[in-house]
Amino acid sequence: MIKLAKFPRDFVWGTATSSYQIEGAVNEDGRTPSIWDTFSKTEGKTYKGHTGDVACDHYHRYKEDVEILKEIGVKAYRFSIAWPRIFPEEGKYNPKGMDFYKKLIDELQKRDIVPAATIYHWDLPQWAYDKGGGWLNRESIKWYVEYATKLFEELGDAIPLWITHNEPWCSSILSYGIGEHAPGHKNYREALIAAHHILLSHGEAVKAFREMNIKGSKIGITLNLTPAYPASEKEEDKLAAQYADGFANRWFLDPIFKGNYPEDMMELYSKIIGEFDFIKEGDLETISVPIDFLGVNYYTRSIVKYDEDSMLKAENVPGPGKRTEMGWEISPESLYDLLKRLDREYTKLPMYITENGAAFKDEVTEDGRVHDDERIEYIKEHLKAAAKFIGEGGNLKGYFVWSLMDNFEWAHGYSKRFGIVYVDYTTQKRILKDSALWYKEVILDDGIED
Ligand SMILES: OC[C@@H]1[C@@H](O)[C@H](O)[C@@H](O)c2[nH]c(CCc3ccccc3)c[n+]21
Question: Among the four residues 105, 173, 393, 434, which has the most C-beta atoms within 10 Å?
Answer without folding.
Answer: 173
